[in-house]
Amino acid sequence: MKSLHNLPRRQLRRLGLAPARVPPTDAWRTLLDEVSRAYGDADQERYLLERSQDISSREMEELYDALQHERDRLESRVSERTAALAASEARFRSRPSFPRGGNPESFPFSGKSLGPRLRGDDGTTLDSRPHHPFAGARRHQLR
Questions:
Q1: What's the half-sphere exposure (Cβ side, CA atoms, 13 Å) at 25?
Q2: Is residue 84 in a domain?
Q3: pLDDT tens for each residue of 71-121
Q4: Which residues pair with residue 12 across a beta bridge?
Q5: Which of 99, 120, 118 has the alpha carbon at shortest distance from 108?
Q6: CA proximity to 11, closest of 27, 22, 45, 20
Q7: 63 vs 61: CA distance, rounded Å
């Protein structure tokens, strides 16, 4: 006889039966009830496992879809900002270094001239341009 699985071996031992002997009718019925109950328990466990896997799979699909949606949204925002930056950069590069017809001496930060200078009481040079971030600062304070 082929080796028995542990479950029927335990069931036979619990009922006081041996695999090589034919059991009495009442023991046979009890054995069949035990086997039927074991099959029912296995079916219930398999059902619960399959149901759990289905629920987990559905939840993972929902999370994956949400993640894909968020990734697409972020990629779209990055593309929009990249395009806006490229357009802004193109506009900036197409501008002349100082306004058309303007005097380079009066254009702030043109690199040509920083405009008129004033001298303070102590003889230090003051920047007279009010729009300059260091307007009114003493030269030695800027170093």
A1: 0
A2: yes
A3: 999 999 999 999 999 998 888 878 766 555 555 555 555 444 445 555 566
A4: none
A5: 99
A6: 27
A7: 5
